[in-house]
Amino acid sequence: MQYYGHKVSQTARVFSKKLNGVLSPKGLYSSQWGILMCLHYRSTLTQVQISNYLNVEAPTITRTLTRLEEMGWVIRAEGEDKRERYVSLSPQAVEKFPEWLEAAVHLENAALRDISEEDLATFNRVLKKMNDNLNNVQA
């Protein structure tokens, strides 16, 4: 038996650990980076939208956003409904984003070294199919 789920999980852990290693000197961690990257590419989102997109529980997102707000990287604003909070990158985060992205891309390029475009295309198809399958599993 191959235990593909275990292999995916272990690879994700190694990648997160290495990403923390390149981002922490810049004052950031991989869990925070996921939120900042999401906001950079998707603009202003609600906390619920961020939670759903990243598949992270709402209390964890709230704690991470509180820390990011304290650090000056995100701005939160109330929506029309008092329970709804909109989140966007701060001007300081927009300015720092290229530096963070460069570090993340450098690590990703190192991880993908010597892997063909054809293999990467297959990898993307397999991951998408795995995600689709998992989203259809009744827990």
TrEMBL record:
It comes from the Bacteria. It holds the Pfam family MarR. Keywords: DNA-binding, Transcription, Transcription regulation. PROSITE patterns: HTH_MARR_2. This is MarR family transcriptional regulator. The keyword Membrane does not apply. Signal peptide: none annotated. The keyword DNA-binding applies. PANTHER family: TRANSCRIPTIONAL REGULATOR, MARR, TRANSCRIPTIONAL REPRESSOR OF EMRAB OPERON. Residues 1-132 form the HTH marR-type domain. InterPro entries: ArsR-like_HTH, HTH_MarR-typ, WH-like_DNA-bd_sf, WH_DNA-bd_sf. Gene3D superfamilies: Winged helix-like DNA-binding domain superfamily/Winged helix DNA-binding domain. CDD domains: HTH_ARSR.
